Amino acid sequence: MGSKNLGDMYGLPLIDWQSVEARLDRGVGQAPGAGGPDRHTCWLATVNRDGSPHVTGVGALWFDGAFWFETGEGTRKGTNLARDPRCTLSVATHEFDLVVEGEATKVTDPVQVAIMAGQWSAAGWPARVDASGIALTADYSAPSAGPPPWTVYRIAARQATAVATVAPGGATRWRFTEGG
Fold first, then answer.
1. pLDDT at position 178, please?
2. Are 30 and 91 within 8 A, CB to CB?
3. Ranges in the chain, pLDDT < 70
4. With b meaning 16 or more CB within 10 Å and e meaning fewer, what string describes 10-25?
5. Burial level of 143, CB count in 10 A (0-12/13-18/19+)?
6. C-alpha–C-alpha distance, residues 173 and 17, integer Å
7. Cis link prior to 85 (omega < 30° from 0)?
8. What span, in angstroms and rounded, lies between the C-alpha atoms of 79 and 136?
9. Domains by residue range for the chain, with CATH
């Protein structure tokens, strides 16, 4: 992994990726009062057919060193990702604002889908694996996810940028050699 100190011209320190991961490991819950400024919202940007960006909020989780999210295949983000897996996910924490750029991979391994259903359930959304064994269902979801079943995606990061929001400050970009 390579890193670049984007705040060097101001004498700001390099942000340590391990501290970013440690903060993400604590969770970025979406319930009110869970994060900064009052809750965390993960924003997913995909590429529309005409090349323009499409940005929408998603219920992403940081797990096992990557961001994971789910959506219906017929949603705009789902159809965009089927055509072009490049995407960007951003989230603000109290300590830093983070942007992760990479590719979203559709998860079809039944074991991994079940693990992620358990992760979302533990975070407060009662997701479960559907009858196919490779998608999720639940009694409710965000309207932007479309109707079930919901496909699970993992973002393989190519690069990430963080801007510190607490002292001593800083801004760093990391490039990952193996895609996350």
1. 61
2. no
3. 30-39, 178-180
4. eebeebeeeebeebbe
5. exposed
6. 9
7. no
8. 17
9. 2-175 (2.30.110.10)
